[in-house]
């Protein structure tokens, strides 16, 4: 161990570097660290000396990290996470925990599972504030950079830096208006005779209903309406001839809220596996682990 290297750096310097990497703007990084812009500029000068590199190049939008800064980014997040774990008291006093927990997920998962988990968590730890966002294409990048604490969704991809846990397997079922004529002769042929609601986020290759129709040589699937959100589909089904293919948990809500008919699909569809995913830097973090456990419990106790 080179003690002279350690002597050059204090923890606030490293935290400031992380803020600069996340915000890529001196003013916003200063605000995040609760210091003046002048103080952050001075800190950046110190960082350049410590790492013997410019670290950031100014551009029209703020700061662009150098190759050296990008190289430091992953190591920095991991080191600060480990330091935080090292300094966290063994006894977790939930009433004293103050945390901002950011996650991305699907809307139906919030409605079916997470809303209950949030209430349970806030009863025991009222100062954990959740920032819930809809899952987007940048979720993995945000999880990697520390802008997200967790992803909960279906079809999540593996990554060596990410930990994951299977939370539940959901069956896909059909949901439709109680007066839909397809119910008079419920069959695969009837389903393909009437229009469907389709998620606008799925192309035909990823959509099991479209794939089934093609594989079986059925008539081309009729799509009467596209909707990005599964919750939106519930409100669009009443008084229509549309048929939706939904996870059973959200279909049950549609049956209760709108009086819709829930039917098992007459042909086989794959189950939908919902997983939670987080960065390895949070694996042993006490607060993060406690929140993960509470979320996992909500999927086990769904009644």
TrEMBL record:
Alphabetized UniProt keyword annotations: DNA-binding, Transcription, Transcription regulation
Chain ranges of the HTH lysR-type domain: 9-66
SUPFAM superfamilies, A to Z: Periplasmic binding protein-like II, Winged helix' DNA-binding domain
Signal peptide feature range: none
Alphabetized InterPro entries for the sequence: LysR-type_TF, LysR_HTH_N, LysR_subst-bd, WH-like_DNA-bd_sf, WH_DNA-bd_sf
Single GO MF annotation: DNA-binding transcription factor activity
Family to which the UniProt record says this protein belongs: Belongs to the LysR transcriptional regulatory family.
Protein name: LysR family transcriptional regulator
Organism expressing this protein natively: Photobacterium indicum
């Amino acid at each position: 161990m080179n003690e002279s290297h350690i002597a050059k750096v204090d923890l606030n310097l490293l935290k400031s570097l992380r803020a600069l990497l996340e915000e890529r703007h001196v003013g916003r990084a200063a605000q995040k660290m609760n210091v003046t812009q002048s103080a952050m500029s001075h800190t950046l000068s110190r960082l350049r000396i410590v790492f013997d590199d410019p670290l950031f190049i100014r551009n029209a939008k703020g700061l662009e990290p150098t190759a050296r800064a990008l190289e430091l980014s992953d190591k920095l997040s991991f080191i600060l996470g480990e330091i935080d774990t090292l300094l966290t008291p063994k006894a977790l006093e939930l009433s004293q925990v103050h945390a901002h927990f950011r996650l991305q997920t699907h809307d139906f998962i919030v409605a079916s599972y997470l809303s209950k988990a949030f209430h349970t968590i806030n009863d025991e730890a009222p100062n954990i504030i959740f920032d819930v966002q809809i899952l987007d294409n940048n979720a993995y990048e945000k999880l990697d950079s520390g802008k997200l604490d967790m992803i909960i969704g279906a079809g999540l991809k593996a990554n060596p830096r990410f930990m994951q846990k299977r939370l539940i397997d959901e069956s896909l079922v059909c949901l439709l208006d109680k007066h839909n004529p397809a119910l008079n002769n419920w069959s695969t042929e009837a389903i393909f005779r009437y229009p469907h609601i389709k998620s606008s986020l799925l192309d035909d290759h990823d959509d099991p209903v479209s794939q089934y129709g093609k594989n079986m040589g059925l008539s081309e699937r009729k799509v009467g309406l596209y909707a990005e959100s599964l919750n939106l589909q519930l409100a669009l089904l009443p008084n229509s001839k549309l048929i939706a293919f939904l996870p059973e948990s959200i279909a049950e809500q549609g049956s209760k809220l709108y009086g819709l008919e829930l039917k098992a699909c007459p042909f086989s569809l794959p189950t939908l596996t919902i997983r939670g995913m987080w960065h390895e830097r949070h694996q042993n973090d006490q607060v993060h682990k406690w929140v993960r456990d509470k979320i996992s419990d909500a999927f086990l106790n769904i009644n």
